[in-house]
Write the structure tokens for this entry.
Amino acid sequence: MRRVSNCIFCAIVRGDAAAARVYEDDDLLAFLDIRPVTRGHTLVIAKPHAERLDDLAADVGSRMFALGHRIALALGRSDLAADGSNLVLNDGPAAFQTVPHIHLHVIPRHHGDRLRFVKGLLLRRGGETDTTAALIRDGLTRMEQP
Ligand code: 5GP
Ligand code: ZN
């Protein structure tokens, strides 16, 4: 698997940097954003290093989106009780990509949260990540139940 030594997200994949993990399999990893816009803001990555869309195989991108889709639904089923979500991918510095390991943002939203969302965008404060990650994992488990 291609990994880049100075990439923070590759360091998270290797376990050399800490992150609150929400989901992991052989190819994909989802973890909480260190500076969440809203509580539960999750990043989905493919484990092999790919900097931008240009470097990402289409089928890997499809699997990243499928996981982002699943996490968005899990946020709604979890005790975070999201009413919706923003799924965002910033491709390249021109589009405000700051970490050069392509990732999909899943940002939970609630009815009437416009002011809190704008505040979150400006302040980007961290939270109690372990509890939040556990709630999202519970949401994923609930999705597997009939
Ligand atoms: P971008 O601007 O590239 O689309 O988003 C990068 C995201 O990665 C930002 O929302 C930022 O808060 C998050 N981020 C940057 N460094 C770290 C880190 O070390 N750990 C985690 N969990 N998130 C990070
Ligand atoms: Zn990387």
